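Every protein is a chain of amino acids, and every chain bends into a shape of its own. Below is the pair of lines this work produces for a single protein:
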Amino acid sequence: MDLHKVERVYTSYAGVYDKIFGKVFHEGRESAIRNLNVQPDERILEVGVGTGLALPMYPRHCQIVAIDFSEGMLDIAKKRTMEHRMDHVTLHRMDAGSMDFQDNSFDTVVAAYVVTAVPDYRKVVNEMIRVCRPGGRIIMLNHFSNGNKMIAAVEKVISPLTRHLGWRTDLSLNTVLEGTSLHVARKQNVNPLRFWALVECVNGKNGSGMAHSNGTTVYSHPTTHATGHSSEEALA
């Protein structure tokens, strides 16, 4: 599954994506954004914004930069931002595995239904860690393989088929987090049948993060946000 094949697949979905997947994935997106407790002027990066379904859910007092590699998806997202007059949103066509942003540019990074839909999830996760400030949040909303051996076996069998549709089913959360600086602060199952997981991580790079007495790492809102640059200045 190469990047350009993924782009072709999702561009072909663009015209029908909202009708087919909009309602199914709505609960997960709403849960992810509702619990963010976004602070004024907080800088948020949405990776794989798609048609921009989640953009109207964010409060307008934050700054949102959103990226996607599919031109077809971005065209619809641009129309949505214009219809809702979302002047606080900036859209870019960009490869999530090689972003044109400076290190530590964002307070929060959100990736909904992305990690299992990219050719190299490690590159994407490492890029999200790089552009997110130390102690910032990385939110992943995704299906991860089930711990149940029977279900996991089925997921492994059907994964080659779903790859042709644009995603994989055999990736576990532990595999995604292995070797990274991310610490899980919260995890909950969402969407129909609770088949998808909303995972909130703290970016522990450079030893950042605050810990409760029970050892759970938690996010703390910054007193100064990311680099302080505008969306355009954050671009390399």
